[in-house]
Amino acid sequence: MHGGTAFANEPIRIGAVFSVTGPAAFLGEPERNTAKMMEEEINKAGGLLGRKVEVVVYDDESDATKAVTAVDRLIKKDKVVAIIGPSTSGNTLAIIPKVEEAKIPLISCAAAKKINLPVKRYVFKTAQSDAIFVKKIYQHAKKNGWTKVALLSASDAYGSAGREDLKELAGQFGITVVGDEVFGPKDTDMTAQLTKIKGTAAQAIVCWGTNPGPAVIARNRAQLGIKTPLYMSQGVASKKFIELAGKENSEGIFLPAGRLLVEDQVDPKHPQKKVLAGYIKDYEGKFKGGVSAFGGHAFDAMKLIELAIRNGKSAEPEAIRDHIEKIRGLWGAGGEFNLSPADHSGLTEDSMVMVKIVKGDWDLIK
After folding, report:
1. Structural domains of the chain ordered from first start
2. 264: pLDDT strictly greater than 90
3. Most Cβ neighbours (<10 Å): which of 25, 58, 276, 300?
């Protein structure tokens, strides 16, 4: 007996690979928590197709080789019907050949557009594509009259994907890139790069990376007394960033994010409000910590699989794949998902808002 429901048959096993430890733990930990919380909620409500759901989670320790090993185990040993994760773009790109070969649907929680462009039959993702965030940043910069930007990007898969989009889309918004610096994901000092940028005509700086690098940049920028407006990517959309950078060093930083971060400031009539409020209440009640955009990606991945199984009345991988692709009008933590054979992420710019860090918290820019 589980949660007052008797289950016959084998459980439906859903695999998950997250960076629960290692440098990307701030992504993977809330993702794991969310996936396990949803497993519990689905089972309490009677499971799926009269079967219990079991989420088998492996920690890839923020390492691509370990992600590949974990996926191998999920497919061959655990016989999962679908996989969610990994947490990072690099680890996702490393496992794609495995899931495509095994014909197991994958819903990644990472953002790089290469994950599903070109479209791959079995690969989906719940994180908005980098290009959507870049457009949001450039629209905001242009509105403020900032047409010269300097870029600071991490040398990993996520950073270089963002850098590509930032350079490629600048012209569309009448923006000129006047500085282009790169940092190593483990670098502990960015004074050299910031000093170079200080010497350019940049009216705004765009930093693309995941913690800890961007937090170092926020601290170094304050130390150097640079007042040029600073944008971060969604790669830092959790309170962990503010904690690492320090409240005073992160003051005034802009970033594009999903509405989850500013749920308390979202119009009560907005169709996403109820979903966000429900997820926050459940997560904070269970884990006593605040939600992040990253846990939201896992929430959406689980929702898509759950809905695909219910709609297709089947837990066979091929049926799950087909029915994920048919999902339209599903409001999740990341926005409204409208998937199709040509679009395996299903989110548009409307899923994003611009936020500003004010007194150690997120402030929605209306």
Report:
1. 12-129+273-351 (3.40.50.2300), 134-239 (3.40.50.2300)
2. yes
3. 300
